[in-house]
Amino acid sequence: MTLGEQLKKLRNDKALSQPELANIAGIEQSYLSKLENDKSMPSNDIFRKLLSAFDLSLPEFLAVFDNDYAETQLRQIPDIEHWLKQQQQSQILNQRRYLYICSALIVFAITIFYAGQSKILFPEMQFQYYSEGIVLAGEPKNIFDDWQILIPREDVKNKLYYKKKMEMTQRKDEHFLLSETFLGQSYVATYSEGLRVYESRGEKKIARPMNAWLRIGGVFFFIMGIMGFVLERRFYKT
Fold first, then answer.
1. Torsion over CA: 9, 14, 17, 23 (sign)
2. Which residue has the higher pLDDT, 208 or 110?
3. pLDDT tens readout for residues 68-93
4. Which contiguous run of DSSP H or E holds residue 196?
5. What is the DSSP letter of 137?
6. How far are the Cα atoms of 1, 21, 40, 74, 233 from residue 12, in angstroms, in the given order?
């Protein structure tokens, strides 16, 4: 549709004759006739009067024209040129935001995939530690293994030996500790009653479904980011 055709259509929609519209807009009928027949291009002042006569905003008036016609023909009118420039700037900003979002998706995807693959957030390897009981103040840390050295050699009838053996048996309070980090071959924990010496008992692998979900999420968001770049040309045609 051309500018003249649009002016004629709008005039007919309002059931106005050329003289009536010319009178409302404050222009000559002959000039209006030239505009409707595309023999002239209105000045910016006349264009504003016509918009006022039709009670239309600039975007509403331009909605029926394709981009090529607006760029090549209607751009001669200053108000339209200014509006087109604003639209182009807005499109460029939106395009940049869109590309930033796509880039952020890819970075986020790589990050969570790495987190799932490396198991850095949810470790699947746990270290096992074992303690036989509480070591009291003044006792050696290996009291549960080497308590016999505390028995004097002159204990011929083994009275002290069996008494200590029974005591250590009664004090025995086994406790297992699982740690996601390696605490060394032995680890000492302090309690109000005394100390607990934990000895390493190896490693244990556990299943963490969250790591699988992180990898799946990483693949999903990576594909979304790549598809965003592929579709960008369709969304923002020059």
1. negative
2. 110
3. 898 889 999 999 999 999 988 998 89
4. strand 195-205
5. T
6. 15, 10, 20, 21, 39
- Rounded CA-CA distance 20/29 in Å is 9
Question: Which of 95, 115, 94, 92 shows the shortest CA–CA distance to 221?
Answer: 115
| C-beta separation of 133 from 144 below 8 A | yes
Domain locations along the chain? 3-76, 84-119+210-235, 127-206
Side-chain-facing half-sphere of 143: CA atoms under 13 Å: 21
Query: pLDDT (tens digit, 9 = 90+) per residue, 100-145?
Result: 999 999 999 999 999 999 988 888 888 999 999 999 988 888 888 8
Right CATH number for 3-76 from 1.10.620.20, 2.102.10.10, 1.10.260.40, 3.40.50.300? 1.10.260.40
Using pLDDT thresholds of 50, 70 and 90, give the confidence band for residue 156.
low
